[in-house]
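Pipeline run #58 for the internal structure catalog. This entry was flagged by the ingest filter as a single-chain record with no existing model, so it goes straight to prediction. Upstream metadata was stripped on purpose; only the residue string is passed forward. Reviewer on rotation: M.T. Logging verbosity set to normal.
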Amino acid sequence: SESSFDETRGGTHSLADQPARFAAAQAANNARFLDIESMYDGGDLSGKRVLVTGGNRGLGLEIVKELVAIGATAMLSAGFRL
């Protein structure tokens, strides 16, 4: 059914209603969705190279600053208009 749709399991679109998506994850006790630390530890990126699109300003720039602070090499891609 559409109410139980999960795009991570082969679907073609996502559930746009984030509160409903979170409630469904809670009901299913989906640790992958509810606890990012269970799947990802971004604390040790030393020696890693990370490409950040839009890294010259805004959120992208803040991400670049954090990556450099934890030892990663940040490579940025930024567009400009003539």
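catalog note: The first helix runs from residue 18 to 27.
catalog note: The mean pLDDT is 78.
status: ready for reviewer M.T.
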